[in-house]
């Protein structure tokens, strides 16, 4: 997988306007309320996601990001409002058909069993072949292609216990791709990863959008959103503070309001996007 060249976040946003007018969103939520019976976590949530774009969802711990993600996936029923997938109500899709359209990459997980990377990726084929069916030659070819798309073909026969955290996360992304979805949702895909492995995963996310997939990921890092996403949504206490083109949303004032914390902005002398850091209160802070 090649590195993503430098890009201006403000100009990289893909417009949902097609030649014939507005394009139907891959996924759309309107006036959504999310949570659990007797407990509303978030309300008034609306978003849309189109093919070929990346949407970053940011917010402090406990703001409802993961609950929103699970509702968009159909893992939790909405408490109010509506979710549509390809213009149809999400509830009208069977679990199998839904899994063929939208794949989910949870926060990094350590496997109890010593599966190889290829075996892990083949698990993504259950959306097409059934839970107990044995993978065939076609499934193996699709799994190998998924490994290639995220640049880890060389890890196919290596145990997931013997690769780095970033490589394991790429295996999970490849497993999602083996479902052959049109959209991928990732919950904090770089959590607990070191600096280099974060780069591996974020480049993979940008590559997926370049191939036409719709991508939504949650993150605590505004710099990842600014450099990888086309659009951003800021959530606090179950509500949307801001949503729009990433360069318009990821700004110091908005981040201060989002996290109730001091924020330091470091501008790029070369004209690239700024870097945002928490204010530690030390020299230069």
Give the structure's gist in a few sentences.
By secondary structure, the chain is an alpha/beta fold. 32% of the residues lie in helices and 26% in strands.
Strand residues, percent: 25-35%
Uncertain ranges: 1-18
Task: Give the terminus-to-terminus CA distance.
Answer: 37 Å
CATH class (first level) name: Alpha Beta
Elements, N to C (H/E): HEEEEEHEEHEHHHHEHEHEEHHEE
The percentage helix is 25-40%
Q: Which features does this protein show?
A:
single chain, about 280 residues, alpha/beta, Rossmann fold, six-stranded mixed sheet, four-stranded antiparallel sheet
Detailed description of the structure:
This protein is α/β, with parallel strands linked by helices and 285 residues long. The protein has a single domain (24-250), classed as P-loop containing nucleotide triphosphate hydrolases (Rossmann fold, 3-Layer(aba) Sandwich). It is 32% helix and 26% strand. It has 11 helices and 14 strands. It has helices at residues 9-12, 65-73, 95-101, 117-122, 126-129, 137-149, 165-177, 195-210, 222-228, 246-249, 252-259; strands spanning 17-18, 21-22, 27-36, 39-49, 54-58, 80-85, 88-89, 102-105, 183-186, 214-219, 231-236, 239-245, 263-266, 275-278. A 6-stranded mixed beta sheet has the order 8-9-10-5-11-12, sandwiched between helices. A 4-stranded antiparallel beta sheet has the order 4-3-6-7. β13 (263-266) and β14 (275-278) form a beta hairpin. α6 (137-149) packs across α7 (165-177) and α7 packs parallel to α8. The longest helix is centred in the C-terminal third of the chain and has 16 residues, at 195-210. The radius of gyration is 19 Å and the shape is globular. Mean pLDDT is 88; it is low at 1-18.
């Amino acid at each position: 997988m090649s590195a993503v060249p430098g890009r201006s976040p403000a100009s990289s946003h893909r417009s949902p306007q097609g030649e014939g007018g507005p394009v139907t969103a891959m996924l759309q939520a309107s006036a959504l309320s999310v949570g659990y019976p007797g407990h509303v976590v978030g309300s008034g949530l609306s978003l849309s996601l189109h093919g070929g774009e990346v949407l970053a969802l940011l917010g402090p711990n406990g703001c409802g990001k993961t609950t929103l993600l699970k509702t968009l996936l159909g893992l939790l029923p909405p408490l109010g409002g509506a979710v549509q997938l390809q213009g149809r109500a999400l509830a009208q899709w069977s679990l199998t058909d839904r899994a063929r359209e939208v794949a989910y990459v949870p926060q990094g997980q350590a496997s109890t069993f010593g599966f190889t990377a290829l075996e892990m990726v083949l698990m993504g084929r259950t959306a097409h072949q059934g839970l107990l069916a044995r993978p065939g030659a076609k499934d193996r070819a699709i799994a190998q292609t998924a490994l290639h798309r995220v640049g880890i073909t060389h890890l196919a026969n290596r145990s997931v216990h013997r690769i780095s955290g970033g490589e394991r996360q790429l295996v999970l992304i490849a497993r999602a791709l083996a479902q052959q979805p049109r959209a991928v949702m990732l919950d904090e895909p770089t959590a607990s990863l070191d600096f280099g492995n974060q780069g591996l995963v974020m480049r993979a996310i940008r590559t997926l959008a370049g191939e036409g997939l719709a991508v939504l990921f949650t993150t605590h890092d505004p710099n990842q959103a600014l450099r990888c996403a086309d659009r951003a949504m800021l959530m606090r206490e179950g509500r949307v503070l801001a949503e729009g083109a990433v360069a318009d949303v990821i700004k110091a004032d908005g981040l201060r309001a989002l996290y109730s914390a001091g924020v330091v902005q470091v501008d790029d002398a070369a004209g690239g996007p700024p870097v945002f850091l928490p204010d530690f209160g030390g020299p230069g802070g």
